């Protein structure tokens, strides 16, 4: 299949640009973390936040386990980050296994604790093996959750988007219709599921615009920590893994330092090509490790606020 004019133009822009040294750092970034399960993991998270904080992220978010399994730890980490660093912190909140009243109470608790940003998600079944079913008396989907949050307080609300379609969607049109309903309900922005080729995002961005979606759509970037883990996650969320990627990570299982260099190279090139295509906002799935995300931001020209450029 021949490349389209837009793809050729984006490729030419990327090829004509200086590799990385000419990028001015005119980007906005955000970072995602998960709540730690031990004190050692909590220390790793603290160090990661401290490393990334000087880059001046728009916000950082903390995930929420299936069925609210990390509810208290999520709340603890979100409030700690907000209070100790001054970075706007966002709490993930899902519809799974809770009534509307229970979810509303959690949201009010966040607002009373100074949290003004929620990442509103439908969520996945806690056992991971069955199809999603709304909780009796709960919010049926993310659009309903967003409307409910708006009734609780004037939160900033981020939502999920799926460039390769959510596995539960009937087709791409239904998937975009669902995203539009989330914006219509009051979402501030959409953050995409991770993907590995820039054309995937550009095609999705164009389809969203054609569907009448005018809200901000931010690409979610996940540097690969483990290729096996990425294979598992991709299978669950429907993300395609390019054929060339497995070969690049082959033989690196016992060489973590080399694997990290390969991962940084792939993710940085993805971001550079997204930048060449006009993207100026990036969301990084850090997996609670800072160095890869920090390195990619540095290559995109971003420097610590107030520091030397």
Fold and architecture overview:
The chain has 309 residues and is α/β, with parallel strands linked by helices. The protein has a single domain, classed as TIM Barrel. 45% of the residues lie in helices and 13% in strands. The chain is built from 11 helices and 9 strands. The chain has helices at residues 5-16, 39-52, 71-85, 100-112, 142-152, 172-185, 198-210, 227-237, 243-249, 256-276, 291-299; strands at residues 28-33, 59-62, 89-94, 117-121, 156-161, 189-192, 216-218, 220-221, 281-285. The chain has a 9-stranded parallel β-sheet with strand order 7-6-5-4-3-2-1-9-8, with helices on one face. Helix 1 crosses helix 10 (256-276). It is globular. The model has no long low-confidence stretch (mean pLDDT 89).
Brief descriptors of the model:
TIM Barrel, alpha/beta, nine-stranded parallel β-sheet, 309 residues, 45% helix, globular
Strand elements, count: 9
Q: Count the helices. How many?
A: 11
Mean pLDDT: 89
- Tally of discrete structural domains: 1
Strand residue percentage: 5-15%
CATH class: Alpha Beta
Distance between the first and last residues' Cα: 42 Å
Sheet/helix structural class: alpha/beta
Strands side by side in the biggest sheet: 7-6-5-4-3-2-1-9-8
Give helix % range: 40-55%
Largest sheet: 9 strands, parallel
Q: Which series of helices and strands comes N to C?
A: HEHEHEHEHEHEHEEHHHEH
Low-confidence segments: none
State the shape. globular
Radius of gyration: 19 Å
């Amino acid at each position: 299949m021949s490349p389209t004019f837009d793809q050729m133009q984006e490729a030419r822009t990327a090829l004509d640009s200086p590799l990385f040294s000419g990028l001015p750092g005119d980007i906005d970034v955000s970072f995602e973390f998960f709540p730690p399960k031990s004190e050692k993991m909590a220390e790793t998270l603290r160090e990661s936040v401290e490393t990334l904080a000087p880059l001046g992220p728009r916000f950082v978010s903390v995930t929420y386990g299936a069925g609210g399994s990390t509810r208290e730890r999520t709340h603890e980490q979100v409030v700690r980050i907000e209070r100790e660093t001054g970075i706007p912190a966002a709490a993930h909140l899902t519809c799974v296994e809770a009534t509307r009243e229970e979810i509303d109470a959690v949201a009010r608790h966040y607002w009373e604790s100074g949290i003004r940003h929620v990442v509103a998600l439908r969520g996945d079944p806690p056992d991971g093996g069955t199809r999603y079913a709304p909780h009796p008396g709960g919010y049926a989907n993310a659009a309903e959750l967003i409307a409910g949050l708006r009734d609780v307080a004037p939160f900033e609300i981020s939502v999920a988007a799926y460039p390769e379609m959510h596995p539960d969607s009937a087709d791409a049109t239904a998937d975009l219709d669902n995203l539009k309903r989330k914006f219509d309900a009051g979402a501030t922005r959409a953050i995409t599921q991770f993907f590995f080729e820039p054309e995937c995002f550009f095609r999705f961005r164009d389809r969203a615009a054609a569907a009448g979606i005018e809200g901000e759509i931010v690409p979610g970037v996940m540097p690969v920590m483990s290729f096996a883990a990425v294979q598992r996650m991709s299978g669950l969320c429907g993300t395609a893994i390019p054929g060339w990627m497995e070969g690049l990570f082959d033989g690196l299982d016992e060489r973590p330092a080399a694997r990290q260099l390969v991962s940084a190279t792939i993710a940085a090139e993805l971001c550079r090509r997204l930048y060449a295509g006009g993207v100026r906002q990036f969301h990084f799935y850090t997996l609670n490790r800072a160095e890869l995300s920090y390195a990619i931001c540095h290559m995109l020209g971003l420097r610590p606020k107030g520091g030397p450029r």
